[in-house]
Amino acid sequence: MSCPICKKPVAKGYAPFCSKRCADLDLWRWLNGAYSVPCDEELPEEIEGSDQRPEGRGTRH
Fold first, then answer.
1. What are phi and psi of 28, to 5 degrees?
2. What is the pTM of this model?
């Protein structure tokens, strides 16, 4: 198995990466939108009632 970033052999402590650097680079790419997970269906623009609270469960101050 090889590191998906640089293709070097995988290091036990950083699997599936070879080093902390490659693991951090992969995380940076996810956080900055370089990767995405495909979705088969579109999400609705609004979910009805998503901002409503169930009765009897108001916010406590």
1. -60, -40
2. 0.59
Contact 33, 24 (CB under 8 A): no
9 in a structural domain: yes
Residue 1: how many other CB atoms lie within 10 Å = 7
Flag whether 26 is in a domain: yes
DSSP 18: S
The confidence score (pLDDT) of residue 36 equals 86
DSSP 38-59: --SSPPPS--TTTTPPPTT---
- What are the beta bridge partners of residue 9? 2
